[in-house]
Structure formats: C-alpha cells, structure tokens
Amino acid sequence: VTVIQTGIGWRSALHTVHQELGARWTQVAGWEVPASYDPKESLSAHRVPVLADQSWLTKIQVDGAELQAWAGQSGFVLPAPGQISKITEGKFSGCWAYRLADDRLWLVGEAGDREKLLKACAGTQGCVHPLDITSGLACLVLHGSQVPNVLAKLFSLDVPSLKAGQCTITGLQGYKVTLAVHAKTWRLFLGRDEARDVWGLILHNGHEHGITPIGAELLSQLENA
Amino acid sequence: VSSRLSKSSATEVIDRSKPIQFTFDGKTIPAYEGDTIGSALAAAGVNTISRSFKYHRPRGLYCLTGSCPNCLVEADGVPSVRACQTACENGAVVRSQNRWPFLKFDFLRIGDFFSFLMPVGFYYKTFIRPRFSWHLAEKFLKRAAGLGHVRPPAADPYAKEPEHLRGEYQVEYRNVDLTVVGGGPAGLSAALSAAQAGKKVVLLEREAQLGGHLRFSTDAQQRDTVQSLVLQVHASSSVEVVTGAEAFGLWEDNLVTAAKGKNLWKVRAGQVIVATGRAQHQLVFENNDLPGVLLGNAARRLLSLYGVLPGKRAVVVSANPDSTLVNELKAAGISVAAVASLPEQVPVKALGFSHLKGVVLADLTADGKPTFKQTYECDLLVLDTSYEPVASLLGQGGCAWQGLPGSASLWPCRTRTGLQAAGHVTGLKTLDEVLAQGREAGQAAASGNSIALPVGAPADPSSMAGMRVLPGADGKRFVCLCEDVCEKDLVHAMAEGFDEPELLKRYSTVSMGPCQGKTCGITASAICGRAGAGQETKIKAPTELTTFRPPSTPISLGVLGAAKHHPTRYSPLHAEHDAEGAVWMDMGEWKRPLHYGDVDAECRAVHEAAGIIDVGTLGKLAVRGKDAGALLDFSYTHRFSDLKPGKVRYGLMCDDTGTILDDGTVSRVSEDEFFITTTSGNVAFVEQWLKWWAGVKYPCAHVANMTAAYGAMNLAGPKARDILSKLTKQDLSNEAFPYMAGLDALVAGVPCRLLRIGFVGEMGWEVHFPAEAGSYLWDQLMRAGKPLGLKPFGIAAQRVLRLQKGHVIIGVDTDGLTTPYEADMGWSVKLDKPDFVGRSRLLAIKGAERRQRLVAFTLDGQNAPGDGAAVVQDGFPVGRVTSARYSAFLGKTIGLAMVQKEGKAEMGQNLEIRWEGQQVYAKVAERPFYDPQGARLKL
Predict the structure, then answer these.
(1) CA B635/CA B838 separation, integer angstroms
(2) pLDDT value at position B126?
(3) Residues of A in contact with B268 (CB under 8 A)
(4) What is the ipTM of this complex?
C-alpha cells in the first residue's frame, strides 16, 4: 500500500460529525483534523470523560509466525500477547507496539510517521507481512476517571479490571473493537465504516457521566498534562 | 369504597403524605406513592383486574409476588404488566386486557359455558377438515385468546433522533465475583459474608426493597434483624444492590440476566447464589380461580405493606398450625367466618360468579373422602398453604430435586459447580437456619466452594398431589391459571397417552403461560406422577420436573432487544451521496443509495454516457505470502496460482458439498499478493474461511480484511475512459489496460487500484481508493465527468443493468443448496486442478441430472413479478423467480428463475408465474439479454 499524497485533505469517517459539532479545523499530515469545537474548551473545564477522534494515527499490522525474529531484527522487544509498550529503540522508535496475538502486532504511530514506518517495513523477508491499515481503522480516544464506567455500559467485558498497558479484542454492541489502555487514555480501534455509529453510542451511553467530545488540541494537552 | 386501613403501620411501604392517582379503564383510582397498581386497585375495591386466557373468567389478585397471571394489565401502552409488582405512576393510564367489550361484562365468557366444546388438545383435534376452516377460525381465536395487544405509538417521539438512540431500553453489564439473586435474609447474609471476604458482589432483588418476607413479619425482632442486614449491605462498598430487578435467566458461565424497568442487566460472576425464597403453593378445588381467593402471604402483603383490607369476611384454610394469619386478619378488623385446618377439613367449592360469595368446606374421612359439608358466606378465602421453592433459576442451572418429609413440594438437592442455593429456597424453615446457611454460602463462594444442601428423600407424587389437589370432581378445578387448564384436562390428556410430564405439558399447555409453571408446575407433575404411582408404566415420578428455560418471567421484547444494537455501516462517500439526493436503503448493515430520483435516467446514463456507483461495501481482502496462490487455488473453484500480476479473474467459492458459498474477483497484485473482492454480506465469512484453510494447510498465507480501508466506485459507460483519463496518467487503452486487467495508478493524485471489469455490462473500471480520500476523489470524478454526462446511479439501476447482462448475484439468484452447474456456472469449475474444496462432489455431479436450473425469461409489459414469485406447472409449484425487473432500455421485463427438474423450461416455452394473486406467462429466453458478445465491455 502506498502512502497517499498529502495536502489534499484526507478525512476521517467522523468528518461530518465534526462538522455538525462546529469544528475549527487544522491540518495534521494531510488530514483534516478538528482542533476544537468550543472556544471555551480548556483543561479545567474537563473534569468529565472526554471523547476524541484520532483516526489519523498511523497503524501498521504485522502478521506472521516469524514475528519475534522480525522484531529482533528491527531492534525492539515484542510485548507479551495482550500487552502494549512504547518502542524506544530501533527503526520503529517512538511507536506503540500492540501485541494482539502470538503472530499479530500493531505498530501505532503519529500521522506524520506513516511514510517513515512503511519505509522501515519495506523489504521484510520471510513469513512476516506488514500491512498499512491506517485507512481502514478508526481510532476513538477517551480520557477521564469515569471512562471505565462509560465503557462498562457498552462492553460485556470486565472493563474496569483492565490495567494500563493491556490490550484486547472484544465486541461492542455488534462491532469488533480493539481496546488499548494507555496510562491516561483508552483507545478504541474499529472499522472506519463503523466509527460514526460507535461514536454516537459512546456519547449516548456516557451522557449520564457528562461525556464531552473534544478536539485534538485539548486531547494533546490532556495527554501531556 | 376504600379498603385502606385508616392507621398506618411500621411495615407499610406507602407514603400516605403523597397521594397520587391513575386511571383504570377510564376510572380514576387514588393511590399513594409506594403503592403498586394492584394494591391501589384493591384499596379502591376493584376485585376483578383481568380476564382469563381461554374462558375469559374474571381474575383478581392471587399471589402478590408476580408469580401468577391474574393481574396482568396494560400500563401506559405496555401490555401484560404485572399489576402487583408495578409501582403506581401518577397519571398512568392502565387498562384491563383480554376482554370484550368490558372487563365487568365480557361477552367472550360464553366460552366458559361451552367449554365442553374445547377439550384438552383442542387445537390438535379441531379445524383439521376442511383445511380452510383453520384459517377462518385462526383470526377469531387470535382475537379471543391472548395476553393483550401491542399498541403502536401514535407518533414516533424519537423520529428526529439518530436510529441508535431510539427507545429507552439499555443494557448494563457487570463482571463480579459473586451474584446473589434474592434480597431476603439468606441473600443478604450471603452477600455480606462474601463482601467481608473481599469479594465484589451484585445483589439482585426483584422487589423495590430488600428484606424479603420479613418486611411484613409480625415479629418485630425478626424485622429488626433483617433491617440491620439491609443497612450493612447498603453500607458495604463491595456490594452493588439492584432492586426492582427481576432475574429471569441463568446462562452458561454464570451469566445472570435481569430486567430492571427498561434496562437489561447482564451480570457475569465466578459464583452465583440463588436465594429466591419460597412461595405458598396452590390448592386445586372447584372455582379456585374466583376473585377473592388469595394465598396467605398475599393477604399479609396487602395488610402489612400497603394497609389494604383484602376483604371483610374471610374463611381461612391453613396448613400451618403455627400460623398467625388468623390473628392478623382479626386485628385488622376482618371477620373470620371459619378456619379450615388441612388436611382434616378442606374447601371443595368456591361460590360466586364474578366474585367470591362463599365457600363450601368439607370434613375428610381417614381415607380422604369428604363427608360433612358446610357453606360459609364470605368475600375472602385465604389459602395459607405450605411452601414450595421459587426455583426457576436453579432449574435453569440444572439443579436436581428431592422431597422433604411432610412437604407437598420438591426442593433442590444438588447444584452444579459455581451455583449454590441458600435460605428458604432449600426448604429451611427458621430464620436462624436461613441466616446461617446464607452466611456459609457466601463464605463458600468467596473461597470457590459450595455448601451441602439438606438431605431429603425421594418424592412421593401421590402424597404431594394429595396435599395440593383436594377431593372433588365437579366444575372447573384450575391447575394452570395462565392457560385455563383444569385437573380433568390433565387426566383426559393422560388417558389419551400423554402421560409423561414433558408430553403432558406440550399437549395440554399446562405451565406454558406467563407464569412458566411457577404456580402450577409442581402440581401438574404431581398429578402426572400420581396417575403412574405403583404402576409398571413409563410414567415418571415428579422428581424430574419439566425443563426450565429462560425467561422465567414475562419481560418485554424491548428489554430483550436492548442487547441487540443494530450496527450500521457507512461508506466513506455517505455525505457525497446525501448531497446528490440519494434515497437510502438498508442492505445488511450498510446504508446504500437505492437511487437518486430517476432509475431509468440512471440506467440510460450508464448505456449512453457514464454512471458511477459506490461499491465500497464489497468485501475486500488482502491475501499475502508465498502460499497465497496455493491457498486461493484450494479455496476457489478457479485456478489463481497461474494468474499473472496485473490480471483479474472471476472467483467462485464452494463448500465440500459443491454448494456455492460466495463469488467475487481475484486480482494478482504481485507474485505473493492477491486482492480479493467478495459479496458485501459475506466478507466476514470468506475471511474466516480463508484463514481456516490457511491455518490448516498454508501457514505462509495471511489474510487481512481491507473492506473498511478501501472505498470503491464503479465508473461505467462509453465515456468512462474519457472521464478517468482526465485524472490519471495511466494509459487506459485496450492495449495497455485490457478487459480483466488490474493495475495500481494515481487518480487525481490518490493511489488507487483500478480493475477493468464490468458487472453492469458497459466498459468500466472499479476504482478502489484509500477511504480517507473518498470525498476528494468523488468530487474530482464528478467534476471531470459531469460535462460528459456522468450520473451517480444506485442499487435499483445496478440491479436492472446486471440483470440485462444475466449476471448472477450469489444469495439472490442462488440459495443454500445451489451448485455451480445448477446456476449455469460450470465454466468456473476447474476440475483439472489436483484438489480444492468441493472438487470430489462437483466431479461426481458433473453431467448428472440437475436438481434445479437457473433460466432466464422475458415478459411483455412493465409488471415485474416480485422476487420469490412462484413458477407453477399444472397447478403445482416447480420453481421460483429469483430476480425480475422492468428494463426501460430493452422495453420489456426480464428475469431469472430457478426451476426444479420437474418443471418444463426449455427455450421458447412459457413459464406460468404467480405472485400476490397475479398470474402471468413469461417466455424462457437466452441470456444475457444485452450485448451477448460482450463487445460493450471492450470498447
């Protein structure tokens, strides 16, 4: 899969949803990204759970029985199945590694890392197959202490028992979802075609907790706070 | 006249300072906050609340625990709500149900007087001949019998909301260490002891308050004991208390489902303790269903919880020598006309037509024969009988049953690992025993163990039946209040050979109503067992009850549906279609444009200029690895390992019986990478199917679902090349890019995969693109194409165009049994391949007579038969129309039909087609109907 040219204005599956929310737009590596919806959005205003779209994150799926060896050659240590870790060495340094199964890994990086990561994957030998799945996967990010309670309404999975550093593939109201727990955020990855419906479901089920959609600027502040 | 006690008591749950009101059949009923609909109706002197299922007999409050069907009403439009369990809402509109025209005068009670015409097994014996008689009777019976009606709302209040937000039904999930069902003394102590051991507990209680029957105990010390437990449970941070939650299902892996209002609770736990308590059992005697006949605890509940007098003059039938009920009634000011002590004295008949007027009591001789009979006038008959367990959940959990000495019931004796019973449900009697057992069960659950239940004895069905079914044979002696099944119905059914509990249940419908056997299940089994006791027959003793299945109690379809969110998938071009004025249709989970206003114009554009359709819903799979070609050779009937990079080939997939599973195209991207399209609805299946075979035989073949990653458009028509050429440097000539070629190229700067294929019969390209570029690319294509006549077209036009070409849609023109030969697609089966899924079967049936065959037909005029219309020959169906459309371009109706081998469908013959009362004659024709040489595809 070739990296698409930048500068045209790539859109996530939630583009019209962001428009309806009155998004102020910015560009991130060619993607049209909602910077904020409300001029009053601020850190102090968000004591409630928040929901953001981060579908532009680069996502590379690597399949194969020789995954372990491939990671070694690429200069990083694979996390255990069901775990996530930040890669600090090698050519994928800076990415997150999500080990979804013995023979399946996701590399998750920033939108601007897409070309770099694909180049790093090029020329892979043996029974290991990297594939750019950025286009097909939407990523919804939740932040806030009430997030487990919001998600517990949507998943039959025991969400509150999940710890930071874990990832799992599970079902959400008829959709297949990959859930990754970071130190401050929860990331839900799901099919792009399903994102619009799931976005609505999360807002609906999080209503009693005051869940609020936020743009990329505030999400970045919350992640780095 | 109000039957409300003037003085409040310490056990009341109503708030007399907060009066409210609702209407019942238009009449205003005063109530207090805390009242149920049933208690408020009783306080207002309303004796008859509903009419029975079959005979339309009047029914009133009976159990007050939600177990019987006697108080089902329609509340605020929701049918079959249990009045005794449903809290009063101020301003609620409550209606009686299953009566015509009025509750007080129900004309349909005529069935009660002609019940001899409706013997047990009525449906199996009647309306057999002539055959049409059933269809005539069915409509009447549906109206006459039943349990209320679902009323569609006058206006959809959520019409403006997104589909997924409609309705108020929701699901709550919990994952805990222990689920306790029942908030009585045993459940409370079990929950507390497990919580004290550090376990996370969910406590489900169906009533609005915790405490169980002790809430209305006359013993203040017992009330204090349970109140103390309630406070401790509420104070515990480890116990989540859910009141008003009716647990109705116990499933695999200790999943308990409960309905709480409009919420469905799904609680999964390591351990489950069922502490659902016990209930008084029924007594079977003549007219035992009259309003005014109450179980003992129902009378206690009315008095103690709601301050309502259940009657003025009572006869009490008691099986409990220590019972304080008589004193409680007298203390409330009710005159007690007589007290009959079971088993020496029994009621043999309740008197009255619409309400209890009196009771005939009889003394019994030592051998159980009634001797001296005496009639007592009364408006209340209280059946203070012995107890049976409330054990539906235990039954669902596979519990085994036993008798206990002197008991008229069956009790749990063994449960499976992870499931325990505690408290009165196990047959214990004293509060101390119950509290101790609850505590032990909670501790055992915390350590992953189980407690042992009291050891009983084999049940004696004759003795059990004797304690429940009183002497007498006259009149209607109801066993099943839900389905109006009397004792004699069961006796007759057994005489006809239905003498095993499961058979008896199905034939007589006993225990198949809303109460699901809670009132009558054990009685019916005892009657069945009594008939076979001591005989060398196949009749079982009632130690094996009929199968318990969820839901154990009536719950609304809304609650069941709450778990079923209907997923909706959106194409990356959704907003663009909206802007073009698309009329939407649901196609599986996808939203797809049906048309843009003028189907004929859309078809014409494809033939004369160019059309563009969103085909992004097609399944798209990437298959990579050195074994990829071999995997596809094995999974499809065609050969792909010899496909050259840059080429596309049609692919048909069959199972091992040679039945068609799916089809699509396979493009070779590089030596070890293929790109597959599948039908929209089958991608998940094909993905799993390929992964399965890859796992079994081809370890270095990896399958990835790229359906959401790529959007796709089919640009087709004689101007397609001109339009696409404006946006790409790729040479699109026939020489550089021939039919059935597939290449990657930049289109308007977007990296796309172009496949030159033609489903709609005109030259065209399927353009697959990264989904995030969809809006941009659509805009570019429309800008380039509109000056040349480009129009978007929808599914409606696509269906006409593909039918003109005679292209088959798998799943529409084929069914779950169709082989490639029957679908006239034998050309796609390469039997010279060494092996592939279905090869041996296809080899065997090749050349054999086909079970059915797909034929094309034409029809004059525009009246296209509906899909599924019958193909008829000599009055018998010999096939079905799979697709038919009127083609304005061809000026006739065209279609495909699957005709069985018995049907005559040779070229030029007539096919008789019938649908919805219409009959037409079509002519079998050659397909394709349009461009048979395929020249249009290769322009």
Answers:
(1) 9
(2) 85
(3) 156, 158
(4) 0.90
